[in-house]
Amino acid sequence: MESMLYEAALEGNVTTLLELLQQDRLILHKVAMNPPSESPLHVAALLGHVDFVKEILCRKPELADDLDSRQCSALHIAAQKGDIDMVKALVQANPDMCFARDVDGRNPLHLAAMKGRNDVLAELVRARPLAASATTIWGETILHSCVKYNQLEALKFLLENMDNPEILNAKDDYGMTILHLAVAGKQIEMIKFLATRTAINVNALNTNGFTALDILAQSKRDIKDWDIGESLQCAGAIRARDNIHLSTHEHGTTTQTNNRITSHESNPKQQGKRSENVHKKEDDWLEKMRNALMVVASLIATMAFQAATNPPRNTEQDTCQCLTVSQAAAAASPPQISRLLEHHYTNEAFSSEPPMAQTTASPRSGYDYSSGPFFFYNTLGFMASLSIILLLISGLPLKRRIFTWILMVIIWVAIIAIALTYHATEAIFDEDSNGYFVISIWVMSLGVILLLGHTIRITVKMIKNIRKLVRRLRQNPAQDVHEPPIAPTV
Questions:
Q1: CA-CA distance, 368 to 412, in Å (whole number)?
Q2: φ/ψ bin of 39: left (φ > 0), alpha (ψ from -120 to 50), beta (otherwise)
């Protein structure tokens, strides 16, 4: 009897259907219990037998909920075929089937839009308006379906009858708007309508960071390119590399500015990718900065250690002393030479130095390295550079920008200390030189200017963050007072 029921559905024979129901009143119930497949209602809807469908729905309206192996209902089939009478009968039986989705996530409205069935779209939108806002498994809206299948009239109808303005700039899972799709398909009429008759964001970016004009530039050359490019540029479209005014809107909507350069919506994938790139660039910058600080600190530590163990000496004065001893030795007899040399090498100023060192250099008479400014500044630079090295190799989590600024301040102290050490060498020699003073003052001034500049910049940034925090708290007075505030980042 089920085979005879399917035969009746193929022919649309209502008489046979009634005879089968007289013989077995449960035949429609038995058919509904079969595994997912084309029911007699699907067959009759496919072939357009409206009277047969109405008779079945009158006897058992629940059959309108049945789905076949591709999760399609009879309403999917009727909407795709454009059979308005069949659609009305099925919608009357169960209007919620407008939300039913097939294996691709498309509801009957998507299929009607793909085929350009405007009368069917009107009936379905009237029955369930929210069904027009549904998306497919790829995140495509019903407008994407219109553009993909070049259904301009269906697109116009939906834009005029839908109450969802955000759907115009909606993106699929690849960040493609309907304008991206229209440019990729080189649909001139569709592009002209979207660019001139709607408020679409002509500079929206897809997941790869391309605008509609970028899509056109990367596509295969065609005779339509000039008209498409002119239409886009007249609407204010530009390349992504030139679009410096694009910014992500917090709620995923887009608004136009006077010059048609608008902020673009970012889907979660795009936001995650952009955030990952930003963090990667910042980590690279911090890593390079730490490496540079290590090299500079090592160099300063080496210089300071060398200056402490082998301080500068006045070689000119020592050379004069050596010549005096040699001249006296040349005019004296051998016993006198012995006494002269003995007196020279037992002199108090050289008692702590080996003979070889005395023949090459000698410090200024009366200068104390342990208490003079030379030793103090040299030690300060040495300790600052060692602090940098110790912090960098300590294994502490110094990956935040604020810690890098602290390390930079310490290295500035080390550099200024080396400059002061250079200036302090003037006290070692028995002469005054403006060169030491000018060089040290120039280095110190440059370091102080840099320090002040960075301090002002960080202070300004902290003030801006505090203002944003205060503004956010004023806008949300109902926020829980026990919730800890977000600390401003530097």
A1: 27
A2: beta
Weakest-pLDDT range from 178-187, 195-204, 318-327? 318-327
Amino acid at 226: W
CA angle 309, 312, 313 (to 5 degrees): 120
Distance of alpha carbon 335 from alpha carbon 333, whole angstroms: 6
Cα 137 from Cα 297, distance rounded (Å): 57
pTM of the predicted protein model: 0.51
pLDDT in tens, 366-408: 455 555 677 787 788 888 888 878 877 776 665 666 677 777 7
Over the stretch 168-193, which tens digit does the pLDDT of each residue have?
999 999 999 999 999 999 999 999 99
> What mean pLDDT do residues 41-63 have?
93
> HEC profile for the chain?
CHHHHHHHHHHCCHHHHHHHHHHCCCHHHHHHCCCCCCCHHHHHHHHCCHHHHHHHHHHCHHHHHCCCCCCCCHHHHHHHHCCHHHHHHHHHHCHHHHHCCCCCCCCHHHHHHHHCCHHHHHHHHHHCHHHHHCCCCCCCCHHHHHHHCCCHHHHHHHHHHCCCHHHHHCCCCCCCCHHHHHHHCCCHHHHHHHHHHCCCCCCCCCCCCCCHHHHHHHCCCCCCHHHHHHHHHHCCCCCHHHCCCCCECCCCCCCCCCCCCCCECCCHHHHHHHHHHHHHHHHHHHHHHHHHHHHHHHHHHHHHHHHHHCCCCCHHHHHHHHHHHHHHHHHCCHHHHHHHHHHHHCCHHHCCCCHHHHCCCCCCCCCCCCCCHHHHHHHHHHHHHHHHHHHHCCCCCCCCHHHHHHHHHHHHHHHHHHHHHHHHHHHCCCCCCHHHHHHHHHHHHHHHHHHHHHHHHHHHHHHHHHHHHHHHHHHCCCCCCCCCCCCCCC
Residue carrying structure tokens 């040399």: 341
- CB hemisphere CA count around 23 (13 angstroms): 11
* Residue predicted with more confidence, 148 or 165: 148
